[in-house]
Amino acid sequence: MDYPSRVLARVDELAAGLGPSLRGPVAALAANPGKSLRSGLLAACVGDAPVDPSRMVRLGALVELVHLASLIHDDVVDRAALRRGQPTAHTLVGPERASLAGLAAFALAGTESAELGAGVDMLVSRTLSELAHGQLLDIERTFDTAYALQDYLELTERKTGVLFQMTCLLGAAEAARPEPEVAALSLFGHEFGIAFQVLDDCLDLTPGDLDKSVGTDHMLGLFGAPTLAALAADDSGALAALLLSPDFTSDDLPAVRALVQSSGGLDQAMELAREHLDRARAALDDVAEDARTGILAILAKVESRL
After folding, report:
1. Where are the beta strands (DSSP E) in the chain?
2. Distance from C-alpha of 273 to C-alpha of 198, rounded to nearest angstrom
3. Backbone angles phi, psi at 87, to 5 degrees
4. Domains 1-117 and 145-305 share a fold
5. Residue closest to 197 by CA, chosen among 259, 130, 276, 262
6. What CATH number belongs to 145-305?
7. Which residues form a coiled coil (predicted)?
């Protein structure tokens, strides 16, 4: 069994250890994995360093489990109907049980990190704290059409960047990389995570994405980078008026997309994603070739979405 398959099997094993009433939502999402981007990035950061294969699998499963738990909570807050082409946990078992399942998965990740060692435990704990803070900030900004794009980027650091940063740091620590490389990989994870989220915001305005309900964040007052950039550029106030209309429905989403595009918001956000991807790539100049090659391959896959 190869590394990605072993990681997924370990996630399934961990999910099976949850209580009967909570394992269902976690196991269902674990059984419908995405691209395993984070565990793949961890392995790339390790590169050719001699490491314990079983620890590598556990670390890969750990980062995927944290990601999975965050998705369950995100979907509850965003009231998303689909995740990876399937009904979200809260639509199947209700928001209360889904929230508890996500919390149980976070707790399980904490237990797993403690067993893997003090350094892992501390890093995971800090990351979970930042993720929770980011989720709270996301809730607090709802329907704020004056929310600054820079503030949103700081929120994105907590919601997305810290998990990629944690992934890179776990890989660097496992490979015992020297301090300059650790710092470079930390910076890469930070910049890559921001770019990834901004790019995801852009794709959220693209009709035909079957992975999730397109543009529905706008109905909850959760505006991504393209919309925030468009709001700042729209002197007419038409976009803000539309988004804040009490009669706003999903039928208005095409009009939102048109206004965001015509005001240059989508182009500005795409350029912002490119800037952070460029910074991420530049950080790799200080990383040894055995890790840089694999990380660049992952970076290229993300860039292909631009």
Report:
1. 82-83, 86-87
2. 6
3. -60, 140
4. yes
5. 276
6. 1.10.600.10
7. none
Distance CA(240)–CA(175), nearest Å, equals 49
CA Rg value for the chain: 19
Domain ranges within the chain, ordered by starting residue? 1-117, 145-305
User: Can you say whether the dihedral through the CA atoms of 232, 233, 237, 240 is positive or negative?
Assistant: negative
Instruction: List Cα–Cα distances, 146 to 140, 180, 271, in angstroms.
Output: 13, 39, 21
Digit-coded pLDDT (tens) for 35-90: 789 999 999 999 999 999 999 999 999 999 998 888 887 776 666 666 656 667 67
Class of domain 1-117: mainly alpha
Other Cβ atoms less than 10 A from the Cβ of 176: the count is 12
Separation of alpha carbons 304 and 283, rounded Å: 20
| Amino acid at position 132, single letter | A
What predicted TM-score, i.e. pTM, was given to this entire model? 0.90
CA angle at 73 for the pair 30 and 118, rounded to the nearest 5° = 75
